[in-house]
Structures are given as C-alpha cells and as structure tokens.
Amino acid sequence: MQPTRPLLPEAARRAAAWCVVFLLLAGVAAVGIWLCVVFKTVVTPVLLALLGTALLGPLYRRLLRMKMHKSLAAALTCVAVLVVVGGATYIVVAALIDTGDQIVASLRRAAVDIAEHLGAAGTSLDDLAKNARQLLEKFGGTAASGVISGLSVVGQMAATAVLALLLIFFFLRDSDRAVETLRSLVPRSIGDMAEAMGRRAFEAVEGFMRGTTFVALVDATLIGAALLILDVPGAVGLAALVFVTAYIPYLGAFLSGAIAVLVALADRGFVIALWVLGVVLAVQVLEGNVLQPMVQSRTVQMHPAVVMLAITAGASVAGILGMLLAVPLTAAAFGIIGELRTRYTAAGEPAA
What pTM was estimated for this model as a whole? Predict the structure, then answer.
C-alpha cells in the first residue's frame, strides 16, 4: 500500500503547531488578566507585597546573618518599611500639598504664555494646565492637591497598605518555604525547572526594584538640587514628583521633566527654563547611559520599546497602578523566558 502524502508540507504544519501554542498561551494570559481585574482587591496587595519583599529581601537576610529570629527579623524589616515609606509618603504629600497650588498656577501661566505665542495652535494648552491638578493627584497620591476625593478611597488605600504590609511580613518570614510550596504545586518531573524559573523571576523583580529606587533617588536629588539653585518655585514638590514618577520608566521622566520646565518658564523666564531643560536632559542621559545599564546588567535586558508597550498595556488594564506594576512583571516574565532559553540551549534543543 502506497503511503499517503501529508496534506500540508512540514513547514506549514510546524507553523500551525506554533500558532496553536501561541493561541493557548494568549488564552491563558487573557484569563489570568481577567481574573486579576475581577479580584483586584486581593491581587493588588499581593503584588505590592511581592515588590516590597523583593526590595527588602537584602535587609531581612542581613538581619538573619546577625543570628536574629526569623519572625523578629521580618517584624523589624516591616517596621523599617513603615518608617521609611511612611516618612517618604508624608514628605512627598506634604511637599505637593504645600506647593501644589503654586505649581498649578505656574503651569496655567505657562500655558497662557505659550498660547499667546502660538495663537490658535496653543489654545488647548490652557485646558491642559487646568487639568494639572488631576495629574498631580494621580502621581502624588489622592491628597497631593489638598483635596480628598472621598473617605472610601482613603479607606481602601489604607486597607490595601495594611494588608500589603502584613503580607510582606509573612512572605519574608516564610520565604524558605516558598520553594517547597512551588514544588508541591507542579509535577515532580519539572520541579527543578519550576524552581529555577521562580528564582530567576524573583531575582529580576528584586534587581528592578532596588535599581529603580536608587535611580529615582538620584534623579530626584539632582533635579531637586538644580531647581533649588535656580530658585524655581515648588522645587521640593517637583523633586518629590520626579521621585514618584521615576517608577514609571521613560514616561514618568518625560512628564515630571516637562512640568518642571513649564513651571520654570512661567516664573523664572525663558533662560531659567532652558537651564532646567538642560539639567533634566543631563540627568536623563546619566540615567540612560550609566544608571540604567548598571541596573539592567543585574536583572534582564529589556528594550525601551518593550518597556513602553508594557506600560501602555498596564495603563489600559489597571490605570496608574498598572503602569507601576507593568515593568517589574515584564521583567519577571523575561527572567522566566531567559531561564527556559538557557535550559533548552544547554540541552541541545533549538531555543524558541
């Protein structure tokens, strides 16, 4: 009997198989995102706790090396978080409250001046300035402009923060059990691979959080010092805004830098605005060529286009919170993919 020839050539069948795999992965990802949106009240503190655990892991491990009990070390780490984050939040919110009206007024004057020079093409800039308070609220917190939108919002934020802090305590204290829990959830044959992927993903998030915090502190310090030297009004509030928005790569630096330049233009004139623009650009060059490579060299390399797409996707799913969480989650995904590529390449199989 003569063997039947396949209906499709080998290349077409391989392409079809990869399409099926892609559709399955896309379906699983879509269902996962949908579940995260539906249960965002629970998912949000868990994700924030994971980021906090990644950031505070070195401090916790240092306390353990000092022969401190795990529960006590986790508790002291959480207290340190409460003091540092609470103090930083107070400084940021207080600075934005004290200088928020001044910044908004300066932005409005800058919009009017630009509109006068641009004529009809600049008429929409005044509307942009009128909405600057909303921008400050989003990046500085709901109390940044001095107006609390509602007790329910504040209560939800407080509950999320408390739950995230408690989860950080448990995640730190029971971190040694994470590997055992992960292995119990997967088949025994892939336990080693699952553990390696989990470690690689967490290391990527840990490096991103520590590096981004360092970059944010450097950016805020340099730009804030320059604004103080140039006597730009609201310098402390603008520096606080730079620190907060630095957790949104590329887009955050553009927004905070543009606001600083407009405030300088309105109150200090064109020359000072140019100086502020030069400082902002110099800091961004330092970040892009020195700081970011140092950060990414210890985690995973992500192209700026990938980062921007991740931020856009995160914003469409969960707004500002999605923008903040998108990049570390993408870094974790890249870490998992990198581990898979390493294992398949080492096994002599073609990497996907």
Answer: 0.67
The chain-wide mean pLDDT, for the chain, equals 76
The pair of structure tokens assigned to 136 is 């400050």
Q: How confident is the model at residue 23 (pLDDT cuts 50, 70, 90)?
A: very high
Token digits of residue 314: 């995160």
* Phi, psi angle pair for 247, to nearest 5°: -75, -5
Beta strands in the chain (DSSP E): none
Residue 70's contacts (CB-CB under 8 Å, 6 or more residues apart) are 64, 173
Distance of CA 258 to the CA centre of its chain: 20
DSSP 298-346: TS----HHHHHHHHHHHHHHHHHHHHHHHHHHHHHHHHHHHHHHHHHHH
Q: Which residues contact 71 (CB under 8 A, 6 or more apart)?
A: 173
> Residue 123 above 50 pLDDT?
no
Q: Tell me: the pLDDT tens digits for 81-100?
A: 788 777 766 766 666 666 66
Cβ neighbors of 49 (< 8 A, separation 6 or more) are: 163, 164, 165, 167, 168, 171
- For residue 168, give both structure tokens: 């950080």
Dihedral sign, Cα of residue 313, residue 318, residue 320, residue 323: negative
Residues 135 and 87: beta-carbon distance below 8 Å: no
CA distance 286 to 280: 10
Measured CA to CA, the distance from residue 80 to residue 213 in angstroms comes to 16
**Are the CB atoms for 320 and 330 separated by under 8 Å?**
no
* Cα 277 → chain centroid: 24
Residue 154 to residue 143: CA distance in whole angstroms:
9
- Cα(252)–Cα(327) distance, integer angstroms: 13
CA 117 to the chain's CA centroid: 37
